[in-house]
């Protein structure tokens, strides 16, 4: 069915979403009552915010119009939206109110308890003065959700936005999004309740229906808008009040129906598209995902078959995952999902889908990456012993190295190009000092020198990832040789798979450092075959860390990554305590590579200054100065080799 909706041309925005912008705290314990939940995952939430996020992820130029509190959670929401490419210029920071909060549980496939903490919250304080005419006029469409008609202040703000939209040829979208608790017609502990008949809510909604070009709701939401418990009767009322509007009915596992004109005698006679049948983990937010998919086509003039197919697929993927906004699919995921001959009953268990969900989202880009590596544990312990000092001094030393890196970043204006590798055995305080600076931060998990690979914290290594900030990257060194004994190879591969799967669950990126055992013969293709083996095992680390290679070897690695993993973040060059002259030649070969993103060098930089500081020959300032000099010299060498590219 053709989509004949007219959209103004040459608008900088596709969609403005006005409405709820809140924190969602999802219980991690599936099957537990909310009373028994013991830990929660934090996500961006609120129906309007989810749609702004979801449409931005699908490529629309979306914007958010709301309020957040002047505090940590408000800043998190702004960062999350802007990080996905969503315009947040019209999200006001409210100095008097806190950001709204929702607690959510997943008891079973039919029970999803919610508690809304929305007393005098920031997003419900949106007022007429917050609505800027030029901003509304800059978009093709304006979406408002039902909650932002539920009180006098937000109702006035929403109506002003609608009036301006009408003046400036902006199409209008209503997501009915009926939550009885948010209209004050049920107890505060009944947030899960999706429908209670209310003449007051019906009358209020009916007063705004004529102002919309697209009206979207579940069968229950259409009924509250129409004032009947019969879907067709309600649709007829909505059509009478909004004769120009296209109506979209979300029907859950049955798919959806689109009614651009007359109401049919049966809902089955409407233009309908069936949904993929998947096993439900969490229905919360499925409607927001559905509408994100629908709008991604509608605003681009796609026919309704295309819009509904994508909308249903978005909903199916989100119901199979834990949260809402982070579960929103990317175009690459949708293309893969819709291209499958057989829809997986549990999309959340599909390895390819999960990987695409991780790697095809917008991510911070790293190039010309200059990383100071001082994650060494054995080497620092030996330096302390040789100097006859307590190993507790190593922690202070690593803190000073963080200061050296920070000073280098500032002096050379290398924001976005700086990183460190640091351990939590001696460098826990250094990790705390480095986190939040916008650096690339890697942390080792391997037991130094182990072959076959063992983890530094034993079997608890993977469990500890839950305590890591998301910006931290797992670094795992494996002395893997493709011609090793079968027993050793299988053990190494099992351990690498364990950390890879742990990374998939925790959401952290993985850097796999491959150094083939020097006890075995080295061939020109040894490293290449090692990488191929890991790919054949279905292991796709975001990063590889490799030794210096010839240009021909780099070209072979470039070709392998382009063929097997175009989403790979890249390769970084390791140092192995090489001299500056040796590194200079290695940089020349690596700089010509299309996949090499920079270097991660340690002992060449820290060994001599650390040895002197531990021996009392350098004070703190002297250590920082010497470490900086080495680091900045290496950066100059790298950048001089990199510039021609």
From TrEMBL:
Signal sequence segment: none
Cross-referenced Gene3D superfamilies: 3.40.1190.20, Aldolase class I (3.20.20.70), putative 5-dehydro-2- deoxygluconokinase (2.20.150.10)
Protein's UniProt keywords contain Zinc-finger: no
GO molecular function term, any single one: 5-dehydro-2-deoxygluconokinase activity
Pfam families listed in its UniProt record: DUF2090 (PF09863), PfkB (PF00294)
Cross-referenced CDD domains: KdgK (cd01166)
EC number: 2.7.1.92
Residues annotated as domain Carbohydrate kinase PfkB: 15-330
Domain DUF2090: 333-642
InterPro entries to which the protein is assigned, alphabetical: Aldolase_TIM, Carboh/pur_kinase_PfkB_CS, DUF2090, Myo_inos_IolC, Myo_inos_IolC-like_sf, PfkB_Carbo_kinase, PfkB_dom, Ribokinase-like
Family, per entry: Belongs to the carbohydrate kinase PfkB family.
Protein name per its UniProtKB record: 5-dehydro-2-deoxygluconokinase
Species: Aquitalea aquatica
């Amino acid at each position: 069915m053709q989509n004949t909706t007219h959209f103004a041309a040459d608008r900088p925005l596709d969609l403005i979403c006005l409405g709820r912008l809140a924190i969602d705290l999802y219980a991690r314990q599936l099957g537990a009552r909310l009373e028994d939940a013991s830990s929660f995952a934090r996500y961006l939430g609120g129906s309007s915010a989810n749609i702004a996020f979801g449409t931005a992820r699908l490529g629309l130029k979306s914007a958010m119009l709301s309020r957040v509190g002047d505090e940590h959670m408000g800043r998190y929401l702004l960062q999350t939206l802007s990080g996905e490419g969503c315009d947040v210029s019209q999200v006001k920071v409210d100095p008097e109110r806190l950001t709204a909060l929702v607690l959510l549980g997943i008891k079973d496939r039919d029970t999803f308890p919610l508690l809304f903490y929305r007393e005098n919250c920031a997003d419900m304080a949106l007022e007429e003065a917050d609505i800027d005419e030029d901003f509304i006029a800059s978009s093709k469409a304006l979406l408002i959700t039902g909650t932002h008609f539920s009180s006098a202040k937000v109702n006035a703000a929403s109506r002003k936005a609608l009036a301006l939209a009408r003046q400036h040829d902006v199409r209008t979208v209503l997501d009915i999004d009926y939550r009885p608790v948010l209209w004050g017609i049920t107890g505060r502990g009944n947030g899960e309740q999706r429908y209670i008949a209310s003449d007051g809510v019906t009358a209020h909604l009916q007063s705004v229906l004529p102002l919309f070009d697209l009206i979207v709701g579940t069968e229950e939401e259409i009924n509250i808008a129409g004032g009947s418990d019969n879907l067709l009767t309600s649709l007829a009322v909505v059509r009478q009040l909004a004769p120009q509007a296209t109506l979209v009915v979300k029907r859950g596992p049955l798919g959806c129906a689109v009614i651009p004109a007359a109401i049919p005698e049966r809902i089955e006679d409407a233009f309908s598209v069936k949904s993929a049948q998947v096993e439900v983990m969490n229905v919360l937010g499925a409607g927001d995902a559905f509408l994100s998919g629908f709008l991604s086509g509608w605003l681009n003039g796609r026919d309704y078959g295309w819009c509904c197919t994508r909308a249903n697929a978005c909903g199916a993927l989100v119901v199979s995952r834990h949260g809402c906004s982070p579960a929103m699919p990317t175009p690459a995921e949708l293309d893969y999902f819709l291209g499958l001959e057989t829809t997986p009953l549990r999309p959340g268990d599909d390895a390819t889908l999960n990987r695409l969900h991780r790697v095809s989202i917008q991510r911070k880009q790293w190039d010309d990456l200059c990383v100071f590596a001082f994650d060494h544990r054995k080497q620092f312990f030996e330096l302390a012993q040789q100097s006859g000092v307590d190993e507790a001094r190593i922690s202070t030393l690593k803190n000073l190295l963080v200061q050296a890196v920070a000073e280098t970043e500032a002096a050379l204006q290398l924001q976005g190009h700086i990183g460190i590798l640091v351990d939590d055995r001696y460098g826990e305080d250094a990790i705390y000092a480095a986190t939040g600076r916008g650096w690339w931060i890697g942390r080792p998990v391997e037991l130094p020198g182990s072959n076959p690979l063992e983890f530094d914290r034993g079997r608890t290594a993977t469990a500890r990832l839950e305590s890591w900030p998301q910006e931290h990257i797992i670094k795992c060194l494996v002395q893997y040789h493709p011609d090793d004994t079968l027993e050793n190879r299988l053990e190494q591969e099992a351990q690498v798979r364990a950390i890879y799967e742990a990374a998939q669950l925790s959401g952290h990126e993985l850097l796999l450092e491959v150094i083939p055992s020097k006890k075995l013969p080295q061939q020109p293709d040894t490293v290449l075959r090692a990488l191929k083996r890991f790919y054949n095992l279905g292991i796709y680390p975001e990063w590889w860390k490799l030794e210096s290679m010839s240009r021909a070897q780099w070209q072979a690695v470039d070709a392998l990554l382009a063929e097997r993993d175009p989403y790979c973040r890249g390769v970084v060059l390791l140092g192995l305590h090489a001299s500056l002259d040796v590194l200079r030649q290695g940089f020349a070969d690596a700089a010509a590579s299309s996949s090499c993103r920079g270097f991660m060098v340690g002992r060449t930089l820290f060994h001599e200054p650390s040895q002197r500081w531990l021996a009392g020959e350098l004070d703190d300032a002297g250590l920082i100065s010497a470490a900086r000099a080495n680091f900045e010299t290496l950066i100059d060498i790298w950048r001089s080799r990199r510039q021609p590219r």
